[in-house]
Give the backbone structure.
Amino acid sequence: MLIIFSISATLITATAGTCYGWPSPTLPYLRSKESSIPTSQDEGSWIVSIMILCSALTPIPSAYFADRFGRKTTLLLGAIPFILGWVLVIVAKSVAVLYVARMFSGLGYGIVYTVAPMYTGEIATNEVRGALSTLITLMNKVGILAQYCIGPFVDMRTLAAINLILPITFVVTFIFLPESPYYYLKFERTERAERSLRNLRTGDIRLELKNIEINVQEDMKNKGSWGDLIFEATNRKAMWISIGVFTIQQLCGSAAVVAYAQTIFKSTESKIEPYQESIILGCVQVATCMLSVLLVDRVGRKPLLLLSALGVGLMNGTIGTYFYFSVWHKSSIGQLHWVPLAAIVIYIVCYAIGLSTVPYVIIGEMFPTNVKLYASCIAHIYTGFSMFAVQKLFQVVSDSWGIYTAFWGFAAFSLLGLVYMLIALPETKGKSFANIQARLKRDVARDNASKLMTVEY
């Protein structure tokens, strides 16, 4: 029953995935002579990136709504921007309307990725919490894959109409699901919390309900604030480490690779059709999205992130070099038309095992419960602006200095990130929250002592 509830809840993250992957098959059409809405290269980059920019606007309001009106209510409200976005794409007759459609999708995107992990985490048992967290990522990748598979064979409006089915199905099914028992207990609605938990579980729930009640009371006693992220030294240290890891996650270029996949493949001399290469890419994404979850508790967070950064850095360099020779020394690449697809597939695997999901594990482990939501909001907002910059500037840099320059830039940032994580990132595998906090306190004390010695010297 819990798995069925979770699939219904994560239909909204599949909807977010459709919005994320939609530009890949759609942009080539919009830029073609057959387009009913003629679109320039610059306008196309705005269609891609404006969604992510707007996603940075909703994490804080949606976190407030989730605490005030409930996780379930907020997620249902989050479906409305997606529905409006796809309706606008269906009726669009100008680029301006497509901009507005993508803005609405972005607002929904920010709501979903703030509240969906909260809801699934609170309804899950300890045994399946990791699996349900993976389901959020998996459904997103399925949404992206659906765009790669369906988009090349239907027109833009038909694709939007098909995508519209998902948020509507989400609303129709999710409206019957229970609210989080944590939310009810926060407002001392014990009877409703018990009813909610009975709908989610089979068997005796009394012990679990009591434990949840104790956890909620503890959290309410130790309420945090936005200021605690800045004024408490250990939180500040954790914030800087987390922001650094999220910077590497975005500047390795993943957002551009997914959104511009078909455009990138069109630039190669491959004998495989660009849309077929995109489908291969999407299948690899779905197949590998659970790899990091299987490995993260066996190998550790830091080794996975280092391996991931090294892999994506080398593959970005390989792709950039291929495109450089394709532009300036075409005869020298001969039969190497398979290189971009192979390199991007390896890139996706390397990205999936570390940089795709482990940064969110870092956020969950390095902050106390009373400030974790605030840290998560900051991470989502920062990620939104970073993804916007990557998606927008990818087209600008490619048009001005060649697509190879963009990939070489991604390679440089990936390898610099490797050095940063090697120096700054502590390993948290197998450590309790108290041990992680103690390590951060020691690091802060050491940093302060170093500063003091420097001043005295």
